Amino acid sequence: MAKPIRTGSGFRVLQSRAWLLTLALLLIPGIPQAQEPDDDHDHGHLHFSHPLVTESPSPDTKIRLDYLATNISNGPGLHENTIRVEGEYAFTHSVSLALVTPFTFRTAPGNARTSGFGDIELSLKAASLRFGEKGVLLGGGLSVGIPTGSDVKDIGSSHIVELEPFIDAGYKHDALELVSFARLSSAIHRRSGEDAERNLAFDFSALYRILPTVEGLIELTTARSLTAPDAGAPETSIAPGLKLYPFPNKQIMFGASFELGTGAIHSRQTVLLSGFYHF
Fold first, then answer.
1. What is the pLDDT of residue 76?
2. What is the DSSP track for 195-262?
3. Are 2 and 67 in contact (CB under 8 A)?
4. Which of 14, 127, 227, 245 is deepest in the core (most CB within 10 A)?
């Protein structure tokens, strides 16, 4: 699946606008939908518009560029900016392979700065078209975190391999698209003395086409460690967002979301800017 530094009043403005966006999205069902032919005919099968934080259940052939800006305001604070490039190739309408490469710039407490490549992620995704006529897509797959990071910089890892099998489901009806994922991750190839890691996470996205060129989203992600002593309350965040199609060619799209941590991670906020090109 880098982050601009936001502080002071400017950051509070971003946060207030995010809550206004959330309210607007909750009112979306009351907005008359602009008439537009279903764009699935371009794909010849059930296809979902890609969420921003959550993965899409549809195998795609695309290039995606992300810019993430994360701020942790609690305590001394931490700021990260990550540039992430993803390439995905769909062998068929049911199977695709994706490669994600991140590069992170970090400012830690004490103004210590570091940067470097994180772990590359390789994902195999499969989907069943059996219930496509009913607007339902079921699937799953496996993601592997390849240790291309740095233990010294604490950006990714130079030796730990992460395995993350997942299952997903999507439902599409007219302008509404609902997507959910369940992910179970575990770390292998650990060194002596390193704690075992196992996490369970759930992602959910609700997307609504407001206009032919505008889509609104509300996404939620929650994760919990399954190993002691890290086991505890889940870490949950909510992310309102928008996607735009500024050109007649709908293969090109842009999106933005503001992810707000809740509860134990209430001090974490992330801005995500994305650009997609679907082949």
1. 59
2. PP-EEEEEEEEEEEEEETTEEEEEEEEEEEE-STTT--S-EEEEEEEEEE--SS-TTEEEEEEEEEE-
3. yes
4. 127
Q: How many residues does the chain have?
A: 279
**Architecture field, domain 8-278:** Beta Barrel (2.40)
Distance from the first to the final alpha carbon of the chain: 20
Are 142 and 163 in contact by the 8 Å Cβ rule? The answer is yes
- Of 40-44, 192-196, 204-208, the range with the highest mean pLDDT is 204-208
Q: Spell out the domain ranges in the chain.
A: 8-278
User: What are 45-60's pLDDT values in tens digits?
Assistant: 788 999 999 999 999 9
* Site of tokens 């509070």: 12
DSSP 16: H
Residue 277 and residue 61 in contact, taking contact as beta carbons nearer than 8 Å? no
